[in-house]
Task: inverse folding
């Protein structure tokens, strides 16, 4: 060991040998020292790949990321117009945002120097080039092996094909608690699903509640925008899942099954604890709703909670519409429908069944006896292919047979059946009949033909796969030519090959190869090629009711040209249950709005924000007015206070306008990523009551109050009116260019 | 305000100056002073050249980490804990991850354990190199800081390549580490280790055998072994008093048990001994790093943990400790089963060394040795403040 503790004066001089060495040091920024391949330098973001989910902003430990709306960014399924902007005054370059990014669009470069006297230049919206618009090589980026997100969903247990056989027992078994909590834990609470869900359900909120093992809270969140959650947890078309940000790189969260799980935990007897029933009676105003499907039921629920007297007219023996008379039991057991509907009825909705409006009772009578009428009669007319032979008694409409199955009516089930149609309704009738064949004959002999080839069949893939497992044979890409009838009995369906279904304009215009003929033996044919409205009920108003194409013309409140008549459900939008629920909810709000009362008890997330904003804004105005009225202020302070009051009043007016305009609220709910909304919630929740000891303390408190609320207003106002607050991509680009120039000038 | 030097009518008035029978006066070193580590101050009462009493003044860098941690998700804290101690950040990351792993029963893949040891030893080397420079500076030897701090930069280059950051690595995650070794990294680590090793003998010529250092450091700042134990000294400061305590040996974590290394000690417990123990520890760390490179198995480097935004750690508590370059470094963590730690207490070596022991040792020391004694204890003011 060279340490001998014998001190020497001379030994340090051996260091002189280094005099000839080249120094290690560099003069930065004049000289760039290349950083390592994983360097965590400034951010870059592929703005087209980025979906604006805001998960980066959520994980950021320094609140360095603010989601800003970027003009020109397309908003769509699973996409917002927000993009992350980074404050390098706060960022610690941890790269957690990169590791959690749902799309892998965010990464960091190997660029690490930024010098500027202008602090604004430290706030950037990273694009593909980064802070100085330079092409620096990529640094820290996503690593395949280190996945923060849980990309795989929990598999749902289902009955096997053998177990299903001839039974109508529900196929899906549902999550256990452990499975549900695990699945719920995958959600990053971005809220992209909320934007896409037709009813804009509070999905991240109820998923969060499930994760916290609080099914009751989950149910409470669901009822805010959906009074048929048990049903929807089973049969919803789950458009939300196509938007789920986890679907970008893995499986979307099983939103629908989570909803099913939560509702299964809440017994029917406890549903009434989920909603606020302290309603104000609306002066005895009465509303008639025609049609007991999801749209009519949803409208009934919200109206009754608002305090209206509601009567629901239904032509069938039971309410439920297509949920009950269309969807087969193995997908949606009757108990689920009953649970949801019984609860709605228990709130005081009067249900009149076996009444066909327009036949048993004229619509004019409803018009005269009620303050408003909501029409939600659905699609019940099955369409026919109209090929020769369709008038044969052994040719059936899918929707008619499905209703008969529900009613328990007898009808013939032949040994060989052909179903025409490639959508989910065709699957429902085919799979139902397959079960009945199996029961009756012990075997399944059922063919499904569709114009569409397998790859473009509109039915859900799992429906087709499960149908095949159950013994159904598919002949996709075939068009019906003729139903062959011999000696009065059907013997088969003649088909030709369908060359293409849509023309270049994407219009339905099927073309066939008439030389490619196949005949499928069958004694019974079912047509399942679509349903349409039966507009007989509107006949008395044919003159006065304005139409828009094949639909009744309505405004944003679902109000028709006859002010007392509102329209909801399939006949106006859809067709699916959740759209029916949403249109029912909106029509209810429309009725309420028209009858002169602001919506109140049926508020959803953004309404709540606005309500808080309203309260807080009103409070400020009142306080300021009180301070001024006291008259004890110095002239300068008084002038300032008056100015403040004027601007607070303007804000109050803006919030009031927002609350009044339902469209704006929907718009906000759809477009703001969770990260933005939640943050604003936090700001508002953090507000303390304004102390009133002294005028100056009050003013100070109000100003602080205002700055906390400010972010909410900037976001809200941006999306509505104010042009000045626009944070456009071009603006940021200019900003970055200026920064780059200043930076470059530093080097000379 | 009597203990502050004030200026009156252009004349400096020492507190107590008009009381001739009292020859004691007070003075500050720091918080901005080259002889002070970080933002820290010493308030000294002096009589002649001899310090009568010393009081440390901390708090200039208080960031409230323990409280901050309670406000952040488990994942978010990995980005802030390293900042508790700037020169040797990795024991914080290590403790934070290990505390969660202990509470949650989370296993760490073996490869990750080797990588963690690699990181910890590189951090020790970097930290000691930093201290040499600081220590030399306090006695006016200004070539040593240039050398050891630029050599430390080579270690930081390795950190940059492995972790993406030079000073703060933010690399440990509960369940493992954030990335695998880059291609060819092992060879570059070997090169840097060979280089640092070759430099040690040059340091000996320049610094450790330098007559000036010997004159100034030998016999200065003696911390007797009984006092060292009684006052809670750990790490090199305790080992320089001849007591071979080392958490890596006595309560091994990660894969230290499988690695061969000695625990250097010294007998005299003076500033020089403490320096020499650190000098020898670098050689041992190089030994450990080389073994890690030889023995590291293939395999994953992280055990997947739940979605970080919805990550609950089961209720429970854990006390974990790590041998940092400064001494025994521990975290006591309590989880109430939520998404954030309920409480994290940081037991750093620097409060003991840099406040309690330093104050005791300075009494009776010469004024010009104050800085040197402080550096010889290698306390880290940011960690005192945390
Ligand atoms: C076989 C089938 C399967 C489906 N599967 C799904 C699915 O899995 N998921 C999904 O989201 N959607 C599904 N749908 C679509 C969904 O059922 C409808 O979009 C939804 O029910 C529409 O709701 P609605 O309230 O507008 O109409 P409907 O549910 O059709 O309800 C209308 C109601 O009005 C009643 N009515 C009609 N005329 C009168 C009158 N003159 N007087 C009194 N009452 C009248 C009807 O009896 C009916 O009860 C399916 C549809 C069918 C046919
Ligand atoms: S690197 Fe870390 S601190 Fe910086 S924006 Fe991303 S998450 Fe926030
Ligand atoms: S889209 Fe919805 S379900 Fe998917 S991660 Fe975001 S909030 Fe969760």
Result:
């Amino acid at each position: 060991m060279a340490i001998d503790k014998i001190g020497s004066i001379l030994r340090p001089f051996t260091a002189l040998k280094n005099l000839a060495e080249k120094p290690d040091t560099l003069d930065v920024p004049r000289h760039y020292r290349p950083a390592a391949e994983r360097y965590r330098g400034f951010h870059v973001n592929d703005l087209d790949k980025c979906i604006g989910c805001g998960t980066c902003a959520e994980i950021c430990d320094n609140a360095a990321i603010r989601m800003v709306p970027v003009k020109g960014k397309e908003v769509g399924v699973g996409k917002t117009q927000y993009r992350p902007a980074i404050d390098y005054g706060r960022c610690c370059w941890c790269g957690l945002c990169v590791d959690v990014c749902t799309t892998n669009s965010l990464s960091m470069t190997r660029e690490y120097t930024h010098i500027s006297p202008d602090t604004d230049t430290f706030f950037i919206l990273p694009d593909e080039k980064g802070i100085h618009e330079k092409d620096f090589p990529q640094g820290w980026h996503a690593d395949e092996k280190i996945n923060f997100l849980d990309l795989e969903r929990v598999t749902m247990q289902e009955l096997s094909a053998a177990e299903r056989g001839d039974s109508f027992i529900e196929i899906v078994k549902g999550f256990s608690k452990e499975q549900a909590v695990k699945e719920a834990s995958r959600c990053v609470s971005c809220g992209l699903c909320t934007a896409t869900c037709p009813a804009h359900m509070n999905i991240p909120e109820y998923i969060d509640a499930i994760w916290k093992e609080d099914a009751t809270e989950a149910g409470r969140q669901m009822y805010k925008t959906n009074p048929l959650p048990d049903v929807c947890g089973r049969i919803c078309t789950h458009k939300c899942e196509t938007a789920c940000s986890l679907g970008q790189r893995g499986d979307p969260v099983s939103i629908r099954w989570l909803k099913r799980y939560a509702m299964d935990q809440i017994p029917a007897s406890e549903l009434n604890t989920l909603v606020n029933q302290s309603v104000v009676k609306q002066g005895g105003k009465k509303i008639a709703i025609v049609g007991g499907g999801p749209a009519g039921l949803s409208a009934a629920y919200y109206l009754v909670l608002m305090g209206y007297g509601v009567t629901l007219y239904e032509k069938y023996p039971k309410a439920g519409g297509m949920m009950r008379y269309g969807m087969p039991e193995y997908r949606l057991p009757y108990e689920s429908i009953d649970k949801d509907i019984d609860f709605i009825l228990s709130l005081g909705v009067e249900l009149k069944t076996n009444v066909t409006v327009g036949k048993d009772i004229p619509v004019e009578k409803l018009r005269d006896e009620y303050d408003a009428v909501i029409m939600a009669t659905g699609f019940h007319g099955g369409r026919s292919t109209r090929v020769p032979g369709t008038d044969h008694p052994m040719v059936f409409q899918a929707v008619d047979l499905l209703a008969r199955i529900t009613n328990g009516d007898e009808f013939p089930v032949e040994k060989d059946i052909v179903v025409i149609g490639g959508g989910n309704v065709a699957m429902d009738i085919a799979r139902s009949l397959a079960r009945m064949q199996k029961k009756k004959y012990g075997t399944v002999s059922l063919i499904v033909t569709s114009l569409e080839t397998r790859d473009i069949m509109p039915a859900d893939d799992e429906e087709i796969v499960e149908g095949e497992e159950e013994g159904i044979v598919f002949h996709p890409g075939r068009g019906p030519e003729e139903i062959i009838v011999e000696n009065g009995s059907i013997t088969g369906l003649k088909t030709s090959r369908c060359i293409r279904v849509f023309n270049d304009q994407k219009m339905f215009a099927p073309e066939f190869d008439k030389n490619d003929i196949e005949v499928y033996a069958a004694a019974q044919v079912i047509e399942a090629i679509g349903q349409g409205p039966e507009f007989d009920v509107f006949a008395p108003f044919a003159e006065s009711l304005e139409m828009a194409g094949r639909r009744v013309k309505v405004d944003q409140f679902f109000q028709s040209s006859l002010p007392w008549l509102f329209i909801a459900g399939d006949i106006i939008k859809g067709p699916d249950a959740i759209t029916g629920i949403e249109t029912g909810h909106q029509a209810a709000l429309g009725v309420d709005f028209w009858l002169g009362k602001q919506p109140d008890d049926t508020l959803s997330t953004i309404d709540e924000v606005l309500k808080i904003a309203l309260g807080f804004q009103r409070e400020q105005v009142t306080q300021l007015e009180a301070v001024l009225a006291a008259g004890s202020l110095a002239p300068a302070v008084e002038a300032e206070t008056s100015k403040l009051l004027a601007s607070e009043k303007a804000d109050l007016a803006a919030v009031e306008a927002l609350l009044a305009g339902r469209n704006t609220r929907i718009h906000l709910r759809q477009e703001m990523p969770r990260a933005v909304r939640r943050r604003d919630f936090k700001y508002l929740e953090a507000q303390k009551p304004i102390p009133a000891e002294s005028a100056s303390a009050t003013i100070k408190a109000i100003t602080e109050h205002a700055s906390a609320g400010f972010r909410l207003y900037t976001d809200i106002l941006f999306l509505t009116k104010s042009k000045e607050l626009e944070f456009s991509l071009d603006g940021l680009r200019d900003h970055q260019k200026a920064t780059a120039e200043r930076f470059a000038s530093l080097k000379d | 305000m009597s203990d502050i030097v004030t200026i009156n009518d252009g004349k400096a008035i020492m507190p107590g100056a008009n009381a001739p029978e009292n020859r004691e006066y007070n003075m500050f070193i720091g918080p901005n002073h080259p002889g002070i580590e970080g933002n820290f101050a010493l308030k000294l009462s002096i009589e002649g050249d001899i310090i009568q009493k010393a009081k440390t003044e901390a708090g200039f860098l208080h960031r409230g980490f323990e409280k901050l941690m309670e406000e952040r998700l488990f994942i978010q804290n990995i980005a802030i804990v390293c900042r508790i101690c700037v020169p040797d950040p990795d024991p914080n990351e290590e403790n934070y991850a290990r505390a969660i792993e202990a509470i949650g029963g989370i296993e760490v893949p073996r490869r990750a354990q080797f990588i963690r040891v690699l990181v910890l030893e590189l951090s020790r080397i970097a930290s000691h190199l930093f201290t040499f420079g600081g220590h030399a500076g306090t006695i006016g030897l200004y070539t040593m800081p240039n050398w050891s701090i630029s050599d430390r930069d080579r270690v930081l280059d390795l950190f940059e390549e492995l972790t993406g950051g030079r000073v703060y690595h933010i690399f440990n995650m509960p369940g493992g580490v954030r990335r695998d070794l880059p291609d060819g990294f092992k060879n570059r680590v070997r090169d840097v280790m060979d280089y640092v090793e070759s430099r040690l003998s040059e340091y000996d010529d320049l610094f450790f055998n330098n007559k000036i250092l010997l004159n100034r450091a030998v016999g200065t700042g003696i911390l007797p072994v009984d006092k060292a134990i009684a006052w809670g000294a750990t790490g090199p400061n305790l080992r320089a008093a001849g007591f071979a305590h080392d958490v890596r040996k006595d309560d091994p974590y990660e894969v230290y048990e499988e690695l061969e290394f000695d625990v250097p000690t010294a007998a005299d417990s003076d500033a020089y001994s403490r320096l020499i123990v650190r000098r020898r520890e670098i050689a041992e760390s190089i030994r450990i790093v080389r073994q890690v490179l030889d023995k590291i198995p293939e395999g994953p480097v992280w055990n997947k943990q739940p979605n970080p935004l919805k990550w609950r750690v089961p209720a429970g508590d854990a006390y974990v400790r790590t041998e940092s370059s400064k001494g025994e470094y521990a975290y006591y963590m309590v989880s109430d089963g939520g998404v954030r730690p309920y409480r994290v207490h940081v037991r750093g070596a620097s409060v003991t060394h840099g406040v309690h022991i330093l104050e005791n040792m300075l009494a009776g020391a010469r004024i010009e040795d104050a800085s040197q004694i402080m550096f010889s204890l290698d306390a880290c003011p940011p960690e005192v403040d945390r």
Summary: Residues 5-57 of chain B form one domain. Chain B has two domains: 5-57, 65-384. The two ends of chain B are 28 Å apart (CA to CA).
